[in-house]
Amino acid sequence: TKIRMNVDMPLSTIDRNIYGHFSEHLGRCIYEGIWVGVDSPIPNTEGFRTDVIEALRHLQIPILRWPGGCFADEYHWKDGVGPKEKRKRMINTHWGGVIENNHFGTHEFIRFCELINAEPYICGNVGSGTVSEMSEWVEYVTFGGESPMANWRQENGRKEPWKLKYFGVGNENWGCGGHMRPEYYADLFRQYACYVRNYGENKIFKIACGPNVDDYHWTEVLMSQAGRYMDGLSLHYYTFPNGYGKEKGSATEFDETWWFRTLKRTLYMEELIERHDTIMTRYDLDKRVALIVDEWGTWYNVEPGTTPGFLYQQNTMRDALVAGINLNIFHRHSDRVRMANLAQLINVLQSVILTEGASMLLTPTFHVFDMYKVHQGAKSIPLHVDSPAYEMNGERIDRIHASASVNDSGILHVSLCNLDHAAAEEIEIDIRGKKATHVTGTILTSEAIQDHNTFDVPDRVSPCAFRDYRLEDDRLIVRMPSKSVVVLAVE
Ligand code: AHR
């Protein structure tokens, strides 16, 4: 493989928010994963798991989306404030019909964000809510003066308003959020967004519900009919390795056909971004409106330990590579993609953390986010990758997937994924516009794609120092083992 990059011609800044996460009232994400309550035997800080807080602080998560997902469009925020014993209980109809006791509400979410140093991103209810409900939520959270909602917030123990930067106007309103037509949702968006007010200094970045995967018509209608009222348009795309419920698959059993399909479906994210961007650009040449990929990640259909309502799945080296590829794609399109949120944070889908009782483990995906976080806020670098093909059944993909950035101190970071499950690869990187003098590296790899961390062996897949490279003049020669993720720092 040959990679050529121009360090002195940086593209756009990689927004930190590309490293965002998503937490929904689904399965064991919020309850058990984040919130255990002050009386729990599990060590906690004000009711939030202390081990999780520490791990997430280390990860430097910039932003956290809540309360859903499909749950957002049946959530009535007023049920989740005030004394816990008086909070209403409700049925979580989307996710297993379990009883939601509303113990984790607005105060708890924003406090958790404070504890992990992340910006809160709240998603409001368009599907079964009302305009006044949404408008009062924003007033409750952000209004500093005297008003019914601000007074109620104070009675509930929070004197000062919070700063709230990001607000989503509904979720998947083409599906679980109301099965709407784009024309209808565009009208609703304009109406609802009008009442998502900016109080005082608090300026809200308004995110509209965007397309389901390749619904380009939705993007066209939203941009043409409501583009000027929004700051961001969301895109949801999951890597379903086996199609939407059509075939069976598992994260913990290896099958090369599934692996190749997983890669193809992951790489499809790039085409989706490019095509939605092209449509958006017709109405927004300056790229003012951001594309917000606020749900992405793997979603396996049949997985030991998974029930349809709870979406718990194992996280393997396969997920690590999926994460590396997606983050590379977001870097390369950072001119339009300015936020992305992995689904979901803990115990649901492609999580960075899994818990069982008082135990917690960091998944291979966690380690990729940790290795890649050096790109946050750096400038994306254009690169050309000439890679041998990984082929199957007449289809081909590049074996090596990459991205690069340069930070304010002039350090170049190069992220590389070797997608081939069996073959190592030598990569020659031609660095232009910078004299490379010193290199350090980190690698994440494993013996098998299906390797994962367990509560007994929590570090089976964990990063270590990487030294299989040499500098020759302006070229960096790297030898990557099969199925690996490498991040290099070049000074
Ligand atoms: O992340 C799980 C679900 O996937 C979300 O609730 C929904 O928005 C999407 O369909």
Automatic annotation (TrEMBL):
EC number, as in UniProt: 3.2.1.55
Gene3D superfamilies in the record: Glycosidases (3.20.20.80), Golgi alpha-mannosidase II (2.60.40.1180)
Top EC class, one word: hydrolase
Domain Alpha-L-arabinofuranosidase C-terminal: 294-484
Protein keywords: Carbohydrate metabolism, Glycosidase, Hydrolase
Known catalytic reactions: Hydrolysis of terminal non-reducing alpha-L-arabinofuranoside residues in alpha-L-arabinosides
Pathway terms, separated by semicolons: Glycan metabolism
Protein's UniProt keywords contain Membrane: no
Superkingdom classification of source: Bacteria
Pfam family of the protein (one): ASD1_dom
Keyword Transcription: no
Family designation: Belongs to the glycosyl hydrolase 51 family.
Subunit organization: Homohexamer; trimer of dimers.
Protein name: non-reducing end alpha-L-arabinofuranosidase
Species of the source: Paenibacillus aestuarii
